[in-house]
Amino acid sequence: MKTHRTFCRFCHANCAMLVDVEHGRATAVRGDSDDPMFGGYTCIKGRQLAEAHNSPERLHACQVRQVDGAFAPVSTEAALDEIATRLRSIIDKHGPHAVAIYGGTYAFQNSAGVGAIAAFAGGLGTRNIYTSVTLDQPAKVYTTLRYGYWEGGMHSFDTADVCFMIGNNPIVSHYAPPGSLPPFSPSRRLRDAIKNGLKLIVADPRESDVAKLADIYLPVLPGEDPALLAGILNVVFREGLHDHNFCGAHVDGLDALIAAVAPFTPEVAAARAGVAAEELIKAARMFATASRGVVSTGTGPEMAGNGTLTAYLVTALNIVCARFCQEGELSSIPRVFTAASPRRAQVGVPIQMYGKGFPASRFRGLTHLGFEMPCNVLADEMLTPGEGQVRALISIGGNPIVAFPDQDKMTRALDGLDLLVSVDVRMAQTAKRSDIILAPRMCLERDDITNLSEWWYEVPYARYTPAIAEAPGDLIDEYAMLWGLAKRLGFGMPLAGGPCPMEELPDKATFLDLMTAGCPATPSDVRDDTAHDNKAIVYADRHPVVGPSDPDVARRFDLTAGDMPRALDRYRTADTARDGFAYRMVSRRTRHRFNSTGGHLSALKAKASTNPAHINPDDLERLGIADGALIRIESAVGWVNAIASASLEMRAGIISMAHAFGDIGEDADKISEIGASTNRLVSETVDYDPITGQSLQSAIPVRIAVA
Ligand SMILES: Nc1nc2c(c(=O)[nH]1)N[C@H]1C(S)=C(S)[C@@H](COP(=O)(O)OP(=O)(O)OC[C@H]3O[C@@H](n4cnc5c(=O)[nH]c(N)nc54)[C@H](O)[C@@H]3O)O[C@H]1N2
Ligand SMILES: Nc1nc2c(c(=O)[nH]1)N[C@H]1C(S)=C(S)[C@@H](COP(=O)(O)OP(=O)(O)OC[C@H]3O[C@@H](n4cnc5c(=O)[nH]c(N)nc54)[C@H](O)[C@@H]3O)O[C@H]1N2
Ligand code: SF4
Ligand SMILES: [Mo]
């Protein structure tokens, strides 16, 4: 038995781990208490990493569907040959846009996953590249940079005296935007910070784990975050709590924002947001009078309608309170594996990442966001004949059957394809409907770097882990699969540092070096610097310091770019009542799953098998529904069955349910065993963000019936 140092990739946090390996197989995992960032922390999901690798459900070979519908195992080379032949005929007949590629959550957990997907799509020349980012929080990724950004970076959590979280529960999710709570032992970190004087404000319709620790908890109504934020800005301006000097020096459009929030007096805003006016005023004062710390959102408000407007108001509140690192300070989020950018005390060039000039979808006027097409249009692009119809989909580490809006429509779209390929470790809901399943190596069997988690590191921390376990079959890394397909089809894979070598498969470090070109330390540098013990390395001497502004640059934040702040006026006068649908269903994450992953692992399944509908006990009593009863929840789009669970965390009128549970077909009724997908209640063609296409996956208008 040998013990190896590595890091977990069950989720994006990349906790430092020690893994015992016997005969090539991982047998036990535990936190690495020597690590300077994680100090031994792990969560219950990560502790199942050995079982996940050795699970009897794990695919040890690629699978090809036969004429009788059953799968037969084949070698990886044979599976790639077959896929390439079928793609070739689709591309020859219909052109490259007929092939779509989707990177789901587990494409991100492989450090070369999304880079390889982008390179593959670039080489092929398809506009149909999708990732789960556009089902997640696209507004903050793609819409806020057009107002400008601060080159020196936002304040980071370690120096903050206030933290304002809106619809984000990082104690469970280990996710919060940079500047908010990092995912390293998040519960202890937050409690320690509070002990040291941090003020915490939380807005969430559910009294979440972080809400329970908050100095001020605002139980905002689902989808009404714009009212809450406009009310807070109203108080900030009225009381003159914004940073006048900073706004004078760096901000245009302040008057337009002040005018737009003027109708949102504390009373008006609080009534619309469903909170007490005094609490809203207290929160505004607590946030704006603190000296450092940011306001940010999680998935909740992004999915609850008005994602772009909410992201704008959050950006505006940070800007007017100048929550940025200043000249001479260490810049936040230093990042070792991301191309270095200037870190000066000045506004960066505003960046437009969508709209005119970007590849367009055939649907809803939506265009690429950055490099990707919004997931909103994928089903329609597959279902609708005409130029550019998608006829083949390669889904990598994703599960569209349970994760995308409108499950029935997505199922029809996938079933109608000429070719569906899934890269998956098991017969998950989407994988088992595929024509071909490519079985990949799992994380402990691959080399990887910490390029995903570094968006949360407050110091230049970096890791390169080699593969430490053997693959239990003929399995390869995702980057090698895409390389193998590109080579067979005869196109290259453009990477930031130049074209990927196509003669022979480059090793992963070479691929990662090309992918991260321009970064402060290359992946192979980090590998070489740490090869003696495989520990993390902190390049303290490469931590960028915020430099002086360039006197020749006159850039300012523009708070009136695009449709803002006019969109606030439309929101103010919109009628949000939905006849017949008195309840709002909100999304949430659970400790014992990572989206659809985890239900097959014994310890996680034992903790929770289903995704209950959490409902306030008074609501249940009024409806005559017993705690634990099977209920039917209906939206304008569809219905879903669920187990009712009385919960005092919920305010009246709200149901909270996790997504990505359940199945379709003959397993669809096993509610207490596997749960159900809330995306049966969601449509991507009504209630979607006009820029990002984000559908209403939270704050869904529903009604409750006894099943
Ligand atoms: N209603 C509603 N819908 C939502 C959300 C919501 O809150 N509410 N959340 C949205 C969000 S934030 C996201 S990110 C998406 C998620 O959308 P997806 O990423 O499409 O869904 P997942 O369930 O994460 O799919 C992960 C797949 O990877 C497979 N897998 C597990 N381990 C590995 C591995 O090591 N390698 C590979 N290649 N595959 C592996 C799993 O078996 C599973 O099939 O869902 C979105 N959908
Ligand atoms: N254990 C675990 N960890 C995960 C995942 C998982 O499935 N399980 N999924 C991963 C993924 S893909 C992602 S994107 C991240 C997401 O990370 P988070 O965004 O932190 O996700 P949640 O824990 O669901 O927290 C969202 C909160 O928003 C609240 N909310 C819902 N609607 C609204 C609204 O309209 N307004 C406001 N203000 N709040 C609202 C919900 O009640 C919930 O508490 O987590 C990641 N981490
Ligand atoms: S938080 Fe994420 S990375 Fe850390 S142990 Fe849990 S699953 Fe693994
Ligand atoms: Mo996500």
Descriptors for this entry?
707 residues; alpha/beta; seven-stranded mixed sheet; six-stranded mixed β-barrel; binds ligand MGD; binds iron/sulfur cluster; binds molybdenum atom
Structure commentary:
The strands form 8 sheets. This protein has a 7-stranded mixed beta sheet with strand order 5-4-15-14-13-6-7. The longest helix has 19 residues, at 76-94. The N and C termini lie far apart (53 Å). The relative contact order is 0.16. The chain contains 24 helices and 28 strands. It is globular. The site of one ligand MGD has 38 residues, from helix 6, helix 13 and strand 23.
Give a quick precis of the structure.
The chain is of the alpha/beta class. The chain is 29% helix and 16% strand.
Shape: globular
Q: So how many helices? A: 24
User: Rg to the nearest angstrom?
Assistant: 25 Å
**Physical arrangement of strands within the biggest beta sheet:** 5-4-15-14-13-6-7
Low-confidence stretches: none
- Give a list of the ligands: ligand MGD, iron/sulfur cluster, molybdenum atom
Helix content: 25-40%
Mean pLDDT over the full residue set: 97
Number of strands: 28
Beginning-to-end CA distance, first to last residue: 53 Å
DSSP strand (E) fraction? 15-25%
Largest sheet: 7 strands, mixed
So what's the oligomer here? single chain
User: Structural class, judged by helices and strands?
Assistant: alpha/beta
